[in-house]
Amino acid sequence: MKNRLKVLRAMRDWSQADLAEKLEVSRQSVNAIETGKYDPSLPLAFRIADLFGLPIEEIFERGE
Amino acid sequence: MKNRLKVLRAMRDWSQADLAEKLEVSRQSVNAIETGKYDPSLPLAFRIADLFGLPIEEIFERGE
DNA sequence: CGAGGATGTCAAGCGACATTGTCATTGTGA
DNA sequence: TCACAATGACAATGTCGCTTGACATCCTCG
Question: Which domain holds residue B23?
Answer without folding.
Answer: 2-55
